[in-house]
Amino acid sequence: MTVTGLILAAGEGRRMGLPKALIEWRNRTFLERAADTLASAGCSPLRIVIGARAESVKARHPSLQDAFIENPDWSRGMGTSLRAGLASLASGHSDSDWAAVILVDQPLLTPAAVERAAATAAASTLHDGAVSKTVVMAAYDGERSHPVLFHRSIWTDLAESLTPEVGARHYIRSHPDRVAEVDCSGLGDPTDIDTPDQLEALRRKRTDRTG
């Protein structure tokens, strides 16, 4: 089984004053950390959806140039970025079986959580190559979050169903029998870093659980 890593990193980070892809913590940007998380979990290739200040994001990350997907509609909402990423994969830019989606502003997400979700995805594969589940979602203490894995068989339909504000939530709620939830409690922290106060609290942490 092969898994493409898909990072949603197009937002402007209005409350932070700069795109979260460019925020630095412990000598790495949030985007570098997200890319390392997926790569360490064995996800390949890597695709990154960018939008706000796209040229600055590209210039800061020369080693990731081949991974970028530009979303011209980024300002309308995160759903447009997921649509852009999945549409790119569905158009033939990936031969992977699954796409593992994470957000750029979750710096404490761990490779271990991605690996556990990917193992659940692999276990859903049937003898004829079909899958019993098409969505795998990590949950932490009962709360669903990222990573979320989508099987390639639904990339096109999912992309077409997305709305800018709601993203994949409507699709997931409409197909509960196709969703597998995997407990990743204790395997890192999926908290979004949205404000300067949250970033300052993160910088005061003594332990870096993502390595």
Question: Layout of SSEs?
Answer:
Layout: E1 3-9, E2 24-25, E3 28-29, H1 30-40, E4 46-50, H2 54-60, E5 68-70, H3 78-93, E6 98-103, H4 111-123, E7 135-140, E8 143-151, H5 155-161, H6 169-174, E9 179-183, H7 196-204
Parallel strand pairs: 1-4, 1-6, 4-5, 7-9
Antiparallel strand pairs: 2-3, 6-8, 7-8
Helix pairs in contact: 3-5
Pfam families: NTP_transf_3
Keywords: Transferase
Protein name: NTP transferase domain-containing protein
Q: What would your notes on this structure say?
A:
This protein is an alpha/beta fold and 211 residues long. It has 7 helices and 9 strands. The strands form 2 sheets. It has a 7-stranded mixed β-sheet with strand order 5-4-1-6-8-7-9, with helices on both faces. Helix 3 packs antiparallel against helix 5. The protein starts with a strand and ends in a 7-residue tail after the last helix. The relative contact order is 0.19. The C terminus is likely disordered.
